[in-house]
Amino acid sequence: MIVASLMSLAMAASGQVGVVEENAQRIEVTGVGHERTIDCDNRDVVIAGTGHKLTFTGICASLDLTGSSNEVTINLAPDARVSIAGTNQTVRWSSTGRVRPNVVGYNNRVTRRN
Length: 114
Known about the structure:
Elements: H1 2-14, E1 20-22, E2 26-32, E3 35-39, E4 44-50, E5 53-57, E6 60-68, E7 71-87, E8 90-95, E9 100-106, E10 109-112
């Protein structure tokens, strides 16, 4: 309990609150202010929260992004499902094929990069 509390204080001091959990099928980022690069390894990506700046390397199977003011750079598998909801989201994506986007909310920017 004390260790978890100390870790929470350290994350709050660095501007990062919440968790990044990874398993063989999925990467999940929640909270506020995570800034990092993560190897996707053909996993699904789920992001919830505010103020994340995330770059995913390798190929990601899908993207589910909710919250506000997040910046995501991602490489997606062909025919990947992309769901973006919230406000002021910025997603820069690339793929060797088409993706299946569903974007709702206000002032979200989703652009394909070369």
